[in-house]
Amino acid sequence: MPLPIYQVDAFTNELFAGNPAAVVPLESWLAPEVMQRIALENNLSETALYAPAADGFGIRWFTPAVEVDLCGHATLASGFVAFHRGDAAGDVVEFSSRSGPLRVRREGAFLVLDFPAHVPHAAPVPDGLVDAMGRAPGEIWRAGDDYLLVYSGEADVRGLAPDFARLGQVEARGVIATAPGSDVDFVSRFFGPRVGVPEDPVTGSAHTRLTPYWSKRLGKAELTARQVSKRGGSLRCRMAGDRVAIAGQAVLYMTGTITI
Fold it and tell me: 14-35, pLDDT tens digit by residue?
């Protein structure tokens, strides 16, 4: 059975930057173990698959190791593919997911994600977290299924070299490191070795945690952000009640066919 597949660089307007995601549009869902094997074969941080649903499309996301509840860059990539293929009528595509309803809106060259916000809260610090990061942060928060570590400056975040084996023992989807940016409101990096992603190039879902924190700290609703991984990526974030709008661009790298 042939299946179309697209590879898209998300949160960038340049090829070979941002976060690459595979997107597989389906006519109906495959068995979960088959979708997981496709993601493992793709060997990207995320593979998104979407299929028709009662109201728009259903969407699911897989790392090479596990299915996850939410992935921002692969949703952005899926919206890009839906518009590119003509699957979406107008400038909005609706996705239903394990994290509830999600929307991708086209605004000129940008795609805007509408995601639920995850407000950070105080929580016990798990054993081994700080040692695994190699540098102590000024603040540690829990936000959704991630830990949020706040450092004093951008250089601190850029200089992190975590011990991934030890970090993978921390019970969390991932660890977000963040700090004020030199030319943007804030910078970040995302580490998720427990879910098979040692470092994610650009993590849309992390910004559902980061935006509430920085919006409150800086006293503003609209924020500019950069994920300072090796590939790097840029985002525009806005608090909207209990939702976060995350805007970015995307570039098509590859189209192909899977034969299963």
Answer: 999 999 999 999 999 999 999 9
